[in-house]
């Protein structure tokens, strides 16, 4: 199939397919002398895998690492996709139910508790655990998980609430300077908070801030509190780390 035929079949743009080719993510089976890209059935199967991963908010760089790995198993990946999509559907179902209840609440038909208003939201990034293990090792992650596991539900809820408060503080400052005293004071709260559940050196803290921008999933979640917040946090975290190394 030619690139236009694939684009029409799948529902994506020709430009997207060209980009996938340019970055080595999906290279057509062959290119004709006239410059036409020709895609095989094997290419289409790979494209299906790519789009499953994208639906799960994997960044293209990570998708390329996975699908281009010699040990990549498509059947195994499909089983994983199904499991993750079921988890995503469950979260979305909870959020839809929360929307329906909120509409009823606004109409005066029911009364919602504050806790019910936020059912379905989760900013704790459990989906990044494997990447954390790869970056910082099993021991650091297991220690953090053990601390969380030993907390009561009330303590875990309080932790999530505190985290969201810090995000909101930073969001209110995101149009100012990353070096301001106020921004640096709030990011210290973030540094101290993270070190209550993990063990972050200044270098690891700075690296984490960079990941907020490099990883589309982090950016998407953080920017829910305010557009551009992930980039602002990266800059404030870098300034904080550099300042405290001196």
UniProtKB/TrEMBL annotation:
Q: In this protein, which residues make up the domain named HTH merR-type?
A: 1-69
Transmembrane stretches in the record are none
Source domain of life? Bacteria
Keyword Transcription regulation carried by entry? yes
What SUPFAM superfamilies does UniProt report for this protein, alphabetically?
A: Antibiotic binding domain of TipA-like multidrug resistance regulators, Putative DNA-binding domain
Q: Which UniProt keywords apply?
A: Activator, DNA-binding, Transcription, Transcription regulation
Q: Which residues form a coiled coil?
A: none
Q: Which GO terms describe its molecular function?
A: DNA binding
Q: Which CDD domains did the record assign?
A: HTH_TipAL-Mta (cd01106)
The family database entries (InterPro entries) matched by this protein are listed as: DNA-bd_dom_put_sf (IPR009061), MerR-type_HTH_dom (IPR000551), MerR_fam (IPR047057), TipA-like_antibiotic-bd (IPR036244), TipAS_dom (IPR012925)
Tell me what this protein is called: DNA-binding transcriptional MerR regulator
């Amino acid at each position: 199939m030619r690139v236009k035929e694939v684009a029409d079949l799948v529902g994506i743009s020709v430009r997207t397919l060209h980009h996938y080719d340019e970055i080595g993510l999906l290279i057509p089976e062959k290119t004709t002398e006239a410059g036409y890209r020709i895609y095989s059935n094997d290419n289409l199967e790979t494209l299906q895998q790519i789009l499953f991963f994208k639906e799960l908010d994997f960044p293209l760089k990570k998708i390329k690492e996975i699908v281009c790995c010699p040990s990549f198993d498509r059947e195994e990946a499909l089983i994983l996709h199904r499991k993750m999509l079921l988890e995503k559907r469950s979260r979305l179902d909870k959020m839809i139910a929360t929307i329906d209840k909120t509409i009823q609440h606004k109409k005066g038909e029911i009364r919602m508790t504050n806790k019910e208003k936020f059912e379905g939201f989760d900013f704790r990034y459990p989906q990044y655990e494997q990447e954390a293990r790869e970056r910082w090792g099993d021991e650091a992650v297991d220690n953090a998980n053990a601390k969380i596991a030993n907390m009561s539900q009330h303590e875990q809820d309080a932790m999530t609430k505190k985290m969201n408060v810090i995000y909101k503080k930073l969001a209110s400052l995101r149009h100012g300077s990353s070096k301001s005293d106020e921004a640096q004071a709030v990011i210290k709260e973030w540094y101290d908070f993270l070190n209550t559940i993990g063990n972050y050196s200044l270098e690891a803290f700075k690296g984490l801030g960079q990941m907020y921008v490099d990883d589309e999933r982090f950016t998407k979640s953080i920017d829910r509190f305010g557009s551009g917040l992930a980039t602002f946090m990266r800059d404030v975290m870098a300034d904080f780390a550099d300042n405290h190394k001196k």
